[in-house]
Amino acid sequence: MMARLMQVGLFVLLVAAILVGVKMMYPGATTMAFGTETRKVPIPAPVVDEHGAAYEETAVLAGGCFWGVQSVYNRVKGVTHTVAGYAGGSKKTANYGAVSSEQTEHAESLKIVFDPKVVSYGTILRVFFSVVHDPTQLNRQGPDVGTSYRSEIFYTTPEQQKIAAAYIAQLDSAQVYPKKIVTRVSPLKAFYDGEAYHQDYADKNPNNPYIQVCDVPKMAALKVQFPDLFQEYHGH
After folding, report:
1. Does the active-site annotation cover 65?
2. Does 227 fall in a domain?
3. In-domain check, residue 27
C-alpha cells in the first residue's frame, strides 16, 4: 500500500498541475480523467444479456486498482456484497506483497455478489466498461502499471462467458472507443479474498490523494451516467 501511495504522489502533483493549467487556459473545459473525456451518457447496453435469472449471482472483474472498482460497485443497486481480492494466480501468491511485485499471475480483482432480478450481468459489465476503467489500456490503469492492473473478466458460468464475449465484440464493432478493447475473458479458477485493510478502502479513506484523483471521479461518473442504478453506500 505504501509503495502505491508513494508512486502516485508524483502523479497527483502532475495531474494537479495539468488541470490547473487547462483550467486557466480553458475555463469551460470538460473534466478529464486519465486523458479521457468523462462521458455524460453511458455506453450502449449489451444486446446479449441474461433474462429472468432467479438466483443470486457472482461476478469477478479486474479493472485496475481494486479500491476504485469496489467503490463503484458498492454504489450499484442490486449488488449485495463485494470483496476486493486476487484472481488469476495461485493461493501461495494471493497476497498484496507478492501481487505488487508483478511476478505473479494475479490481477487485483473484485468479487461482486448481485441480485439479477435487480441488475443483470450485462448491466454489471456495462458499468465496468463505462465508468470503472479504460478497457483499451493494456496492463495498466492511470498511474498503476503492471499485469496485476490488467482488464479481465473472470466468468463463473458459460452464460457469463457468452455475454462478455458478445459485449466486447459489440463495443468494438460500434467503435465505442478510439482503440480496440484489450479486456481478457477467462474462466474463474479461484478467487482469494484480499487483506482486511483493502476492503472498502476508498470509503474509509475518502481524503487520500490517490482516492481523490483516481476513484472519486468514478463514483461521480456512475451517478451521472446511471442515476437510476446509483445508490449511496453506507457499508455492508
Report:
1. yes
2. no
3. no
Question: Which residue, chain included where needed, has cell 429472468?
Answer: 52
Report the CATH number at residue 174.
Answer: 3.30.1060.10
Radius of gyration of the chain (CA): 17
Which among 103, 19, 9, 73 has a CA at the least distance from the CA of 202? 73
pLDDT tens per residue, range 84-142? 999 999 999 999 999 999 999 999 999 999 999 999 999 999 999 999 999 999 999 99
Q: How far apart are CA 228 and CA 236, in angstroms?
A: 20
- The active-site residue out of 8, 15, 65, 127 is 65
Would strands 151-155 and 144-145 be described as parallel, antiparallel, or unpaired?
unpaired
| pTM metric for this prediction | 0.86
Exposure b/e, 12-30, CB count within 10 A at least 16 = b: beebeeeeeeeeeeeeeee
Report yes or no on 201 lying in a domain: yes
SS3 32: strand
